[in-house]
Amino acid sequence: MASSTFKSIAVFGGNGFLGHKICEIGIRNNYNVTSFSRKGEPPQSVIHQPWVSKVNWEKADIFNPKTYGHKLKDFNSVVHSIGLLFENLNYKSSINTNFNILNDLQNLTNSFSGSNPMEKAGYKLTYESLQKDSAVILANAFIENQKESPRNYVYISADKNPPIIPKNYIVTKREAEFELSCKRELNTIIMRPGAMYDETHEGNLTKRDILMRGLRFGVGLKNCTIGNSIGFVNDLVRPVVSTEQVANTIFKKLQEEDSKGVVKLEEIVKN
Fold first, then answer.
1. Does the predicted model carry a pTM greater than 0.70?
2. What SUPFAM superfamilies does this protein map onto (predicted)?
3. N or C: which end of the chain has fewer CB within 10 A?
């Protein structure tokens, strides 16, 4: 296997909140990085950054391996960085806009019910389809098309079920973890970050920024007052990590020989 191929990585969902940071850190680690997504374009928020032009941005439908499967032979590492907090995707456009308490409460209510805007484009995106089924489809396509080892498969899971988020969010992630871990042809690396923030975010303060600052303040207050001495509090108040910490941990694991298994939040925090 040529060294250039060994240092190649495919990031599915590479234009997402975490995905684009994985692409950035991949370029920084001298990987040949390809992002696969429905639009095949980088997010507008980072379009001006120099690393963006070094990423190969491609269109793909993760549910249809014919749109990308034959290209997977060029990669020894694949990342599944696709997920959703609510099955109604209206929250994604809302969380990255300016803070407005009345509108935010209404949008949060709408996130629990109503139609999914993606269904109009022929998609039926649910926790099960996006967080489990798509991950398994991608894994099978990787096994089928990449005939050489190592086949590193990174799945972005989660530490815990976030408050107010339906329980099926974490259930489907754990089901995906199990199915992927049963595929012996893969070196499956399961990342379990907690709440994430982008420490290099540019522009106006968004609702995501405000929420993450509040969470980080709460974690800091807990650490200063009671530390880690009370177990059930540690389970409730979980560390907040940056997307850069998560991405750095991924590439650290990829550089370890035959790395596989669950990477817990406590390990991610150290990077």
1. yes
2. NAD(P)-binding Rossmann-fold domains
3. N
